[in-house]
User: Fold these one by one.
Assistant:
Number 1:
Amino acid sequence: MGSHPHDLPMPVTAAGREGLEALLRTPRRAVVALDFDGTLADIVPDPDQARAHPDAVPALAALAPEVEAVAVVTGRPAGVAVRYGGFAGVPGLEHLVVLGHYGAERWDAVSGSVHAPAEHPGVAAVRAELPGFLDAIGAWRGTWIEEKGRALAVHTRRAEDPVAAFEALREPLSELAARHGLMVEPGRAVLELRPPGMDKGVALTEFLAERDAGPVLYAGDDLGDLAAYSAVEKRRADGLPGLLVCSGSAEVPELASRADLVVPGPEAVTGLLAALAAALRSR
């Protein structure tokens, strides 16, 4: 495939080119899976203000009917991602699935409802303890706690020195989490305390198995997406093509270095999705 139609960017790796070609060749077996924050929505200082890029829903609605499935895989509660994404009731997105809390929750457009297990007891314990805990260790001014329902996140982006605050909190928060049977998931200026056993790799692998999927495109921007990258790489080792996309490269070089294609943020991700939809519709 010498030239890509509709301005589709060319992956820099052979495995990525193979993944894109397989997706274009057999779209009806293909799954497109995407992180939300930093991938479909710009990173903002207050996560409650995050919204999908204005072009995201139109691009997804154009792409979804051409492929086997589109899934949003996020650490957020599924219902919150649906609300901030504007995904409900959109023509073309009738079969969208949102895997929230790293796959512990699932929202699907068909039922319009969220399915979720009971909360891990450690989350309630940490919720009660965390404010006093941060005060006691003299946490930097500007750190703050985000309530995520099945998890809690401590943000350092607004601190005077976000990196120093992040590094100083990492070990104490890991000890607090371990005491209550939780784990810490580091991200971009955020440390999330959540139950073990679910990650984006597990969520993606289970979803792909349900669908008996062929080629898969996964796009993410943060450390939590590395597990999904690993899941796609494992499939590739088994002969199943995949394409790894990194949204932005400055903050998380670990992801960018493993991606087949790096694009500069959510606007470019939505452009890629739109170009893919156009290429598939014109076939």
Number 2:
Amino acid sequence: MNQLDALRQWTTVVADTGDFKQLSISKPQDATTNPSLILKAVQKPEYRPLLDETVKKHAGKPLDEVIDRLLVNFGTEILQIIPGRVSTEVDARLSFDTAATIARGERIVALYKAEGIDTEKRLLIKVASTWEGIEAARQLELKGIRTNLTLLFSFAQAVACGAAKVQLISPFVGRIYDWYKKSAGAKWDETASAGANDPGVKSVHEIFNYYKQNGIKTEVMGASFRNVGQIQALAGCDLLTISPELLAELAASNEPLEHALDAKAATKGDAKKVSYDEAGFRFALNEDAMATEKLAEGIRAFAADAVKLEKLMQESGK
């Protein structure tokens, strides 16, 4: 049994890609996308026609709507290959606007429904884990729209997401690791900070245990991996969303894989339940320099890629 098959015994494997033609190789249950992955995909010759066709078909409509239609086109293609759910992201430029995030999420759902997709079972709306984004997700969940809270770097964000009863959260393991490695500089010890001692892995362990000990149903999906060691150290997490390159690395290894996270064992702890009002959440996030910086950086990067995608669409329409 290779490590990818071993991982599937305990964890739902999710592909993190906009390149849907690769999905038949790794055979994931679910798939996630984001603006950066879609931008990367449409710059490849095999996917550029999908962008051009979307622009041509919806010429004259607002650019933000045409982008949503492109995202849904990718998502619909993905859903023809995978048996589970696809995550489609709301424009990161709306990360601090609850009402606009809800409206955009509802529009994405409507577009999928128009394609005949059972959105309650097969779609997750991705929203940034800001205070406003979490509130938007809370309201979307009450309407039966399932959400995936992304750009999550801190325990405080995870607590607020659990309280909002969102479907799923995506702690960004690799970006947490990046921050601590850069902060340590020459003092960084890669060996001592690997596996269970990796700061991104430790963050997911803390969140996973807290959720299980307090009966919080929100799913935990580790994301943004830099190496297979981080994935191996989280075997047993509810879900892990993994790039095609790292999926291939796992499939190529026949080394034994240990069951690192166990939901039943995690329930035996005694982590006290935490709650935040808006002021408390903002202060807790502010106290976490890593989370504050990486959240802001992530929103800026996704927003920048959304602008690049808009420019490609405008050029295509000329």
